Amino acid sequence: MSEKIATAPRVQVIMGSIRAGRLCPRLAAWVMEIGRASNGLAYELVDLADWPLPMDDEPGIPARGAYAREHTLAWSRKVASAAGFVFVTPQYNWGYPAALKNAIDHLYAEWVGKPVAIVSYGGHGGGKCATQLRQVTEGLKMRPVATMPGITLTHEMIKGGPVDPARDFASDAEAIRQALAELDALLA
User: What span, in angstroms and rounded, lies between the C-alpha atoms of 152 and 57?
Assistant: First the structure.
């Protein structure tokens, strides 16, 4: 198994939220657990809080790929090292967080052609933000998978109540497995 993991395609699980007290780290870790138990991909957690990217501070447009700022060059190397992605993101006011949009918009060629799965969550499951994010990934010529799991949070969870993803969202696990299987198939 260790040989398979060593040669397995690297999939970055990018957390779309940087808010204090966010649920995203627990959900992203759970998504990775499901993936590791379901297929042989090598999952890596990427926390956008560790990648403070200023808004539009590059002198050129990302499509040219001529980055001037060290933080953009580092982000470019990070994203380029992945074969595919899973965006785990909350839905904020029917959309996805600005930090995720900014991280995506900092680059261009590093995303092109790569498969992506979108797992959203929120009080209404995150379907609206997932649809918007899918449009953005299609605009980048990424290859989004068809299944877009949407995890519905209770009002208590949104207000900071206890959450155990494996227990509380067990009914969503199969959709996540399906999305990750579709991602795996695109990486084959």
Answer: 35
* Domain count of the fold of the chain: 1
Instruction: Write out pLDDT tens, residues 4-54.
Output: 445 889 999 999 999 999 999 999 999 999 999 999 999 999 999 999 999
State the Cα–Cα distance between residues 14 and 53, nearest whole angstrom: 14
User: What is the CA 63 to chain-centroid distance, rounded?
Assistant: 21
Q: What is the CATH number of the domain that holds 76?
A: 3.40.50.360
Write out the two tokens for 149. Answer: 């799991």
pLDDT in tens, 51-73: 999 998 999 999 999 999 999 99
**Burial of 45: CB neighbours in 10 Å, binned 0-12, 13-18, 19+:** middle
Residue 154's domain comprises 2-187
Q: Which residues contact 116 (CB under 8 A, 6 or more apart)?
A: 84, 85, 86, 87, 137, 142, 143, 144, 145, 183
